[in-house]
Design brief:
93 residues, alpha+beta, GMP Synthetase, Chain A, domain 3, 3-stranded mixed beta sheet, 45% helix
């Protein structure tokens, strides 16, 4: 008799990072209306070792207090709602 070979079934498992990224994006979506109201916008870029990387757009790019919004607003909310978030950093293109 020939040898029976089992082919692995490919499945997409949701990793803990995937679930965490979904939570991060949900919190950012909750906060976006306030940022949009002031003429800015924010987009999630990536999550890496406790740090959330975002990209600021619109009025946020030239706003002198965008750092305060980033740290006191976005970072504070993410830390309060999601354990394991250590910081939020804005990156340029």
């Amino acid at each position: 008799m020939g040898k029976i070979t089992h082919m692995p079934v490919q499945e997409r498992f949701v990793s803990s990072d995937d679930a965490l990224i979904e939570r991060i994006q949900a919190v950012l979506e909750e906060l976006r209306p306030a940022i949009l109201q002031d003429g800015g916008d924010i987009h999630f870029v990536r999550f890496e070792k406790g740090t959330v990387f975002v990209r600021l757009h619109g009025a946020c790019v030239s706003c002198p207090i965008s750092f305060i919004t980033l740290k006191m607003g976005l970072e504070a909310q993410l830390k309060a709602k999601i354990p394991g978030i250590e910081s939020v950093i804005s990156i340029d293109d």
